[in-house]
Amino acid sequence: MKIAFLAPIESNIQYRQQYMAIIDYLIKTGHSVTHALSVTSATLSAWSEEKRVEYFNSFYTKIGQSDMVIAECSFPSVHVGYEISCAIQQGREVIMLKVKNSLPDIMTSDMLNLNKNIYIYEYANDTLFATIKEALECNPIQKFKKYNVLFPIEMITKLNLISKQKNLPKSVYIRQLLEKGLATETLK
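The structure corresponding to this sequence follows.
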């Protein structure tokens, strides 16, 4: 799968090493990864405005050509926010990763949680790769058949709470429940 990886260019060395580890993991698991981390913020500052615009426009085009976007959002960045917006406008699914208890708290925003193209995953440092694996296994661009179901408001209220507590998209939680139920059914 072609994945566009978003992370702040202006982050510190610790985060940058983690971003490169994520990229390496994605490549080792068979994905093609495009990212903008091949330059540093110092390099960008030294470039002319024209060259910076050309660089980022090229990257935005690559986002549009990707199958999916993964954004590491533990370190606040206006650039990453803009790139996520660009990805959503181009119809891409976005998996947002964030270290538990780190800023920005915008990750808990209802506006993000209501967007059908955004899937938010929190992780601890020792669960990063397991979290990425889970996010990709639940990835929405797999071949799924869409099925509309109407639920009573009481169920929706509880589903919203469970979704936030488990940090899972509602559709993934419902699918997990359905899979468990179907596994126990005996067909005649």
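The longest strand covers residues 93-99.
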